Amino acid sequence: xxxxxxxxxxxxxxxxxxxxxxxxxxxxxxxxxxxxxxxxxxxxxxxxxxxxxxxxxxxxxxxxxxxxxxxxxxxxxxxxxxxxxxxxxxxxxxxxxxxxxxxxxxxxxxxxxxxxxxxxxxxxxxxxxxxxxxxxxxxxxxxxxxxxxxxxxxxxxxxxxxxxxxxxxxxxxxxxxxxxxxxxxxxxxxxxxxxxxxxxxxxxxxxxxxxxxxxxxxxxxxxxxxxxxxxxxxxxxxxxxxxxxxxxxxxxxxxxxxxxxxxxxxxxxxxxxxxxxxxxxxxxxxxxxxxxxxxxxxxxxxxxxxxxxxxxxxxxxxxxxxxxxxxxxxxxxxxxxxxxxxxxxxxxxxxxxxxxxxxxxxxxxxxxxxxxxxxxxxxxxxxxxxxxxxxxxxxxxxxxxxxxxxxxxxxxxxxxxxxxxxxxxxxxxxxxxxxxxxxxxxxxxxxxxxxxxxxxxxxxxxxxxxxxxxxxxxxxxxxxxxxxxxxxxxxxxxxxxxxxxxxxxxxxxxxxxxxxxxxxxxxxxxxxxxxxxxxxxxxxxxxxxxxxxxxxxxxxxxxxxxxxxxxxxxxxxxxxxxxxxxxxxxxxxxxxxxxxxxxxxxxxxxxxxxxxxxxxxxxxxxxxxxxxxxxxxxxxxxxxxxxxxxxxxxxxxxxxxxxxxxxxxxxxxxxxxxxxxxxxxxxxxxxxxxxxxxxxxxxxxxxxxxxxxxxxxxxxxxxxxxxxxxxxxxxxxxxxxxxxxxxxxxxxxxxxxxxxxxxxxxxxxxxxxxxxxxxxxxxxxxxxxxxxxxxxxxxxxxxxxxxxxxxxxxxxxxxxxxxxxxxxxxxxxxxxxxxxxxxxxxxxxxxx
Amino acid sequence: xxxxxxxxxxxxxxxxxxxxxxxxxxxxxxxxxxxxxxxxxxxxxxxxxxxxxxxxxxxxxxxxxxxxxxxxxxxxxxxxxxxxxxxxxxxxxxxxxxxxxxxxxxxxxxxxxxxxxxxxxxxxxxxxxxxxxxxxxxxxxxxxxxxxxxxxxxxxxxxxxxxxxxxxxxxxxxxxxxxxxxxxxxxxxxxxxxxxxxxxxxxxxxxxxxxxxxxxxxxxxxxxxxxxxxxxx
Lengths: 848, 233
Description:
By secondary structure, chain A is of the alpha/beta class.
């Protein structure tokens, strides 16, 4: 490995004079890593560049292509394809893939500058979902030198018959924000596309651009085809890092809340910070927090500071307006979610405020990096914890940032539903041999694990559904010809493939349309502008007339018309808290370990705010501190109920799963649990039975209660009815192409589609439990919504190391979880009891 | 987690046009006086119907639906079974029926009357599936037909009623019997059948008002809610 720092005296000769002059004219010097990427390109090497924001990463990625295209000389632009008669001059040279459509467009705009100023013979174009069909067709016939696009568009291009023609001339692939792409199913899809590109154009080299990650080798493997035995890696270039960031935790003068995520207590302090700086990015973790904070900041905005709102549910046009205003330096602050974690660079941000829990140290460092893109000056950031546990998490994060400790997720195991989509795409392109496809797919790093049996099962799934009962041979989507090659059975199959491409499956979303308020008896007026989208399940929890905060306004729910929620403006001072999710990441395992360590070492508390220190000291006195390597379980009675509170620090998702499984076991032990509530740090279960008494009598063992075997039968039984599992299955079914995103000519609404995937899940689970899609869904559940893997790791870590503390009343550490009862959804899927209770209550009301 | 579910009887007595019927939380209706079991919207072969259009749903729906129906027929041992239409998802459904499913169906029909009321999905009598066909059937005060017309004494299907109840911030959605004292709309029974919320205008057309009751299918029993109390989608 060579770092750019080690070759400071880099050979400037790799940079053609024309380029050198351009740099000089702008008062710039090419950075060492930019030159090193040029040198790697000359040697024909694939390379991963790790660089902080503001280090000229993008230019570094493109410089080799610009130089090469310039040296190749001017193409004869008079020769163009006329459709059938191809007189192509030189074809596509560089393919750039970005996770964000907007980023691709922005990069293209930025690249135009050097191209124009140096008068380079380079044509660059973008291709996104917004590109007009005529232009897309022309691009396939007469491709630009550089094409900037997204993973989905690449998949679409590969699934056409002319893919070999289009990509045959390709020299270089640039993958931007690779650290972000590889963590999701989009990364799986991209890895398969990349493997195909290496087959179509063996001469290509790849360039990955990434923020700092925990395991650069994972990304280096991703970038190059993996041999059947052993492994291959792209070269690594690490850019010089900038000045260390200046990060601090807000030392609030106000009372620190015990629970909640609003940071209401620190509003005046956040406002003061915004006022003191030129432009601030205010990051929060969820869309509802963004809406809340935005409302509250404006309520107190005596100076009329230009504060804007940005999150993924807002209408695209609205988001663009905010981004443009930001770029033009017209804003003092933007309250945003992870929607601005990536994307366009803004030079003028001089402060990042992170409200709430940082969740992970790498995530936090990337957010901090959004401030101040001049490398030599430190980025400035302030962490604002919203409650006491978050103070601990912020403290842990400060330590991690000081050490530059990374906790990006480990490399993914390629998902089978994505593979199914790719297999169909391959058949839509060129007919394929299973043997060849197997070799090609195995070259993609995430799919190195794949067995031939897996691939055959996937092909069988794509062809006829992969059912043990071979009922659908005559309806096959792909079929093997006499030549042994698989091809689609009808052009309609390719058409449908194109409509269902991609791995992003949104929850069913409803558009929010602003209308004028309805007067009684009058029909709701149509028209009005779209404010954005909300999850269908959020709307389901509302009744007509309810008010909620969205898109920076207080809105009244007027009507549901087809797939649109009609709303009007309201001035209700107490709108419903929008409980819709989005952007909820679990606390990283790494930060969790650091938090446990802080708790276990009272010596380290001197850095903590007074209020928090006192809280922990009382905990130490009344109960116990959670030991670093063990699990503290407290039991206590309260208001005629019995509580069990434990502190695994494994994140809300894993805790929810644990809560579901624990209540099942307590139910079986006749302890009659009534409910549970999970937060990032702890889990509280309560019920009618006295847990402590049963432990004392030796009738219940906590070791047995928390035994890993809960991940066996109990988990299976719960998965059968789990709504989250059904949601996971639905996503897999759509990605794999079993269910379509849209039903052409289908009369039923999307609402009914949701029901039917649940029904399909029930039937499939009973009749073919080892079906490919169930395997895919289980594998997703292990790391996704149910976080089973993390729960399993925790259960095995604390085996035989459970510390039980029987108390006669609630402990200080248990308060935050108990406060969330009633505020947070109490999880439980026993809907039958809910119905019975609702009916009972109705009867009571009627009889009064 | 409450004892309510256990303490109450399993089936619910319903009275339609003066006739006593039993609503079973499995989604069928039993008429004790006539020993008749009524089931609606079986939608056999819906999976293969979708497969014809390239959506390869698991081909186990007919078997799953038949297995549930078999359990109920064993339990009630009815003298007659009335299938209230849309028994097959499309006209070719009966022809696509698998051999083992066809045998199961035959076995269920042995020793009892089996009446196929025709529906909009299966408007024509079909061969090779046994039973007697009819557009509607009247017995005493009751009339059985597929599409509800709102007449007194009518037992119909077609609409796939589903009710939604919100309680403590959560909403539960279940199939249901929609009924007032004079008429009843059956829940759909088929494994892949979706539903239509009872607050949809189609139900107001049948009942005239919102003064009807949703008997939601619970795991152990029915849960009755006034339609007005239920929420729209």
